[in-house]
Specification:
The structure holds two protein chains of two kinds. Chain A is mainly alpha-helical. Helices cover about 60% and strands about 0% of the residues of chain A. Helix content of chain B is about 70%, strand content about 0%. Chain B has helices spanning about 5-15, 25-35, 35-60, 70-90, 95-100, 110-120, 125-155, 165, 185-190, 190-230; strands at about 160, 175. The chains are: A mainly alpha, B mainly alpha.
């Protein structure tokens, strides 16, 4: 990993994988706190389950591959994969969802390709997509935002799969704003009728706060230069501009740009997932195209696709395109005209 | 040219040069229909039968066909054999025929068949060509059945479901439910599961080969040392 260095005099900065992963985890804290407040204990249970199984899978695979276990395990990359996956999962999903997802992410999407630095796809999103296509029912178990179930109900749901006696699962869970938006539009309802039920001040009810917290953490990451501005800015611009265009044409059926920016996984995806240094584009101009592609694809999948949110699919699709984008956006070599052979 | 021995032909088809795991030929049907043991077995047997018939025919007419036109002739032979098999399956295994659908006629395009006709049957005597067709066909069928079993087990927790499609009404209760109350792992049934499963099978074969090579080396090394000392 090459970081931009400024000319002397400078203080030596700590630049390594470990510090970088630690900062990303710090930056996630406001989002995690907000999610815990909105959805209850399931969030922390998911993080613990996914983080632990990701670390376990990483240790097992490193052992099998005959690599040093401790230094790689402690760089925090497996933990970060687990945490990012856990934040994408519904808090009331059964325990094995988090375990299978993070094990798949580490074993298949990361270690089989050669470990950190060699994975062409974002492991957390690969794990999430596997869960989404395999267990669509379990991945709808979101509690109503801002009205979380208590600890004992959550524990019962996560570890036995059944709500405690006297409680109905349908009384606890609720379709997410993105989900009910697509259902209602599909039923022929119009957006103005849905105001107040689906959307809050900016985005989906409750979810707008979550997205604002991720935005805060992401801005801090930008400030400490762990990520660069191109990918988040381009992704959010791609999402917002496409949404704006269609909203202006037909405001009754296409949600506003601010709804798209502050619902679902928009901010988490823009600052924490799309910016994964391994699977994203590396050239500055390439990052702009890469982010733009994710933004537009996210909107397309959200609006016309079969799943309520599209960030994970958009990120994986653009991961596929990243090497090609890098090839065509190589920066001009200093002292040469653009396009001349190196 | 010295003709290969029977045991080498069998070893090649089943393991060393297995069409599914080593040559990686005929991947389209291999990946598309292996959602269960029975589907895999059905298509595998049809392919094996085609391979045997086409290898035998090509070997018998190999001296009559001029090299310039051999490929069109082989394709004609294979296409007519596949048409016969397709009609026969439609008549006697109609439900299985409906499930395998387009992949029965597509056996014509299976590169494994034209590959064996070109590289083996057109250069060897009829008995060896027939045996090669059988070995390659059985090797291909084994891969299809293994992959089908893997995907069926992970995907639905059963084995041999719908066996009556091939073996008649007596096979209705053959379904083995290995994991009761299984929720199903849809990915294994979907196309990505086929790619992942095949990748794991190829990796498994390479692992076995590597272990074998290691053992042979371990046996030979002390022998070479004693020979050197003598």
């Amino acid at each position: 990993m090459e970081f931009r260095r400024f000319s002397s005099p400078h203080l030596p900065v700590e630049n390594n994988v470990n510090a970088m992963m630690r900062r990303v985890l710090f930056a996630l804290l406001p989002g995690i706190a907000c999610m815990q407040w909105l959805f209850g204990w399931g969030v922390l249970i998911n993080i613990a389950l996914a983080g632990a199984s990701a670390m376990l899978a990483e240790a097992g695979m490193l052992q099998l591959r005959g690599r040093p276990v401790a230094p790689v395990l402690l760089d925090g990359s497996a933990l970060l994969t687990g945490v990012l996956l856990a934040l994408a999962l519904p808090p009331l999903a059964p325990w094995w969802i988090a375990v299978i997802g993070s094990a798949f992410a580490i074993i298949f999407a990361k270690q089989l390709y050669g470990g950190l630095g060699y994975n062409p796809f974002n492991p957390a999103m690969a794990g999430y997509v596997v869960l989404l296509v395999s267990f669509p029912l379990e991945l709808t178990l979101w509690p109503a935002a801002g009205n979380p179930p208590d600890l004992s109900t959550t524990l019962a749901l996560v570890f036995t799969g059944n709500p405690p006696p006297g409680t109905l699962i349908d009384a606890i869970t609720m379709a997410t704003p993105m989900d009910s938006l697509r259902t209602q539009i599909g039923l022929g309802r119009q957006l103005p009728e849905l105001a107040g039920t689906v959307s809050g001040y900016l985005g989906g009810t409750g979810w707008e706060w979550l997205n604002a917290c991720y935005l805060l953490g992401g801005l801090w990451l930008l400030r400490v230069k762990v990520i660069q501005w191109q990918i988040p800015a381009a992704m959010l611009a791609g999402l917002a501009l496409t949404a704006l265009l269609f909203h202006l044409v037909d405001p009754a059926h296409y949600a506003t740009p601010q709804f798209h920016l502050f619902s679902g996984a928009a901010m988490l995806g823009a600052f924490f997932i799309a910016t994964d240094p391994v699977s994203a584009c590396t050239t500055p101009r390439g990052r702009l195209w890469y982010g733009l592609g994710i933004g537009v694809l996210t909107w397309v999948i959200r609006t016309w696709g079969g799943y309520p949110d599209g960030v994970a699919f958009a990120v994986l699709l653009m991961n596929l395109a990243a090497p090609t984008i890098d090839h065509f956006t190589r920066p001009r070599i200093f002292g040469r005209s653009s396009g001349s052979a190196p | 040219m010295k003709e290969p021995t029977y045991s080498k032909i069998i070893g090649d088809g089943l393991w060393l040069n297995n069409p599914g795991l080593v040559q990686l030929l005929g991947l389209c049907p291999l990946l598309a229909i292996t959602t269960s043991v029975v589907n895999g077995l059905g298509l595998g047997l049809a392919t094996a039968l085609t391979l045997m018939c086409s290898n035998l025919t090509v070997s018998l007419i190999r001296k009559l066909v001029r090299p310039e036109v051999r490929i069109p002739v082989f394709v004609l032979v294979i296409a007519s054999i596949v048409t016969v098999i397709e009609l026969a399956m439609n008549a006697w295994l109609h439900e299985l025929y409906n499930i395998l659908g387009i992949f029965i006629p597509l056996i014509v395009t299976n590169c494994c068949i034209i590959g064996r006709a070109e590289s083996f049957a057109s250069r060897n005597s009829a008995d060896r060509a027939l045996l090669d067709g059988l070995a390659m066909g059985v090797g291909f069928t084994l891969v299809l059945v293994t992959l089908g079993g893997l995907r069926e087990l992970v995907g639905q927790g059963t084995l041999l479901s719908h066996a009556y499609l091939m073996f008649g009404a007596a096979a209705r209760d053959w379904t083995l439910t290995l994991i009761p109350d299984y929720r199903g792992f849809l990915l294994a049934i979907l196309p990505p599961g086929a790619f992942l499963g095949l990748g794991l099978l190829v990796a498994g074969k390479n692992l076995v080969d590597a272990h074998r090579a290691q053992r042979v080396a371990a046996v030979e090394a002390p022998a070479a040392q004693t020979a050197g000392a003598a």
